[in-house]
Specification:
GGDEF_dom, binds guanosine-5'-triphosphate, EC 2.7.7.65, Rev_trsase/Diguanyl_cyclase, transmembrane helix, Alpha-Beta Plaits, 3 domains, Beta-Lactamase
Amino acid sequence: MRRLPKPKESLGVQLVLAILGFCLVFTVLTVAVRTWWAWQAGVAAMSAELTLIEQVYRRTLSKAIWEMDRESLETHLASAAKVPSVGRVALTITPAHRAPEVIDRRQEGWVASGVAPARRLVLAYEPFPGSSETLGELLLFGDERVLWSRLGEEVSAIVTTQIIQSLLLASLILLVFRRSVTVHVRRIANHLGQLTPVTLGQRLSLDRPGHRDDELSLLVAGVNQLQDNLSDYLEQQQRYESELAQHRDRLADLVRERTAELEALAAAQQLVLTLSNRLIHAPYDAFDKHLLGCLREVAQRLGATMAAWYVRDDATGGYALYLHWQAAGAVPSSHLQRVAADDWQQLQAVLDRDELVDTPSRAALAQTIGAGEAARVADWGIEAAAFTELRGGDEHFGLLMFGKPQAVVAWQPDERALLAMTAQMLVHSVRHKTQLIDIVQGQQALRAVNAQLAELARSDALTGLANRRHFDEAKELEFRRGQRLQQPLSLLVCDIDHFKLYNDTYGHARGDECLLAVAEAIRSSVRRAGDLVARIGGKEFAILLSATDEAAALALAERILGSVRDAAIAHAGSDEGPFVTLSIGLAVSTSQRANDFDALFRAADAALYRAKAGGRNRVVAAAPVASEAALDPHQPSDKEEMR
Ligand SMILES: Nc1nc2c(ncn2[C@@H]2O[C@H](COP(=O)(O)OP(=O)(O)OP(=O)(O)O)[C@@H](O)[C@H]2O)c(=O)[nH]1
């Protein structure tokens, strides 16, 4: 506890100085007044003394003048002049018939003064009763110096008295002030200086005899009142602080709870996002497997041991189990594969109102979905369950059910959020999957149509064989491949004999049927998958046989002729017989024989020409195609005629 330093100045000293100052002024005034009074008294006293002298010397001086006793006169005047208050004695004798005589006696150094009193006495003598004679006059002058001397003594006495009086008064006041005020003021100051919140209860009391009711008592009461007020205030402050601390702690707890909740919510969001991504990228033929994986992960995050996805069973109006997951060790369910329409009516009604229904215990479950259904669900080995509908707009994708093996206080907000988000995510994913399947199926259909169109663009409309365009695309490729692999490429060019005549005989429509039958005969003769049969003109067909030598090509050509023959297409106007026949030109290309496909084609065409010229219904093989020069460019070509 820090003690207060001793003050450099003292109230008592200040009080004394003030009193002394006052005493000084008072003394000066008192001295002035009393000096005035002393002066007046001095003057009066001197005047009285002069009167007394006058009384004393009147008769003796009158008698001495009467008797002309000069010696006695001198003696009395000298005696009167020696009186201290008398400065000058002047006796004027006025005898009859004589000149007046003045006898003057004065104190040494006396000067005439306007302030010292003076007396004038007429001297007379009564030689006998009833007669009086004036003898002269006596002048008595007071000595001013005596006045001043007496005043000085008086003043010094007054001043001394006043000073002593003032000092005594001041000392007394100082003493009394110190004993009755200063000591207590210091005590109060020390008390206040040592006050702390802990010592506020210590009351101030002054060590004073008797019961006093003065300003100090008032001050002490005020200090004690102040301490009481401060004490109350501090108590209140402490109460507020403690309440504030409690609020702060509660707030910190709330913040902690909210933070944990938000973190759990963020984790739930993250999980749903991950699952959503997984479903988006899942191949749609494995979509259900991924859906089941989602149910499992959500259930595990919830601490659930089972998850089920029910879908509406349109046939019965109830629900059918679509996906189902159970934790290892959980009691497997034989129930609840199907739920009758009436069984979950109560649950459905609740779900129509609230999107999510959670029950923390079996009893709550019974209240929510009915005792019977709760018992069935309980058979699954669960105590707490949550249900949520999978609904998007007007579409209904069923409902989800998660179960925990133990009752809980309540499903937590983050768990409810996870359930809601999972339901939404599954609805979106299923919708997405449905849209995806529609798109894929659309693409497949489009691809099929495109393929069909492409096929049509490369097919002959009448016979379904490859058309000229297809043939032209394929010929160069096959030719180059044969060259590259050093394999022979054979080309058969087939032409129906006397087809004009056929048309003329049977009509154009029958001509088309004939073309179709011939094409079928050719197609059935060609068995190797790599061989290409094309209709390259009105009644002209080309067969491209890769990796086929001349012998094999000749055999195929003969087989074709046979097939056409076997088809027995009546041709009444033909010179060759009763049925439609073919003429075939054959050319074989090897790397040594031909430089390009056109040369091969021209060779086959030339062979066909020769087959026609040779009587039709036959195969003619071209001479080996060695070079361009080997062909006779001037020889007319059947093909050219056709075109
Ligand atoms: N019905 C039908 N006739 C066709 C088609 N394309 C071509 N023709 C006919 O085929 C005939 C070809 O006659 P020509 O070139 O004289 O030959 P040809 O009568 O068969 O005589 P050779 O070839 O010498 O045996 C013409 O009458 C064409 O109108 C077709 O797609 N359908």
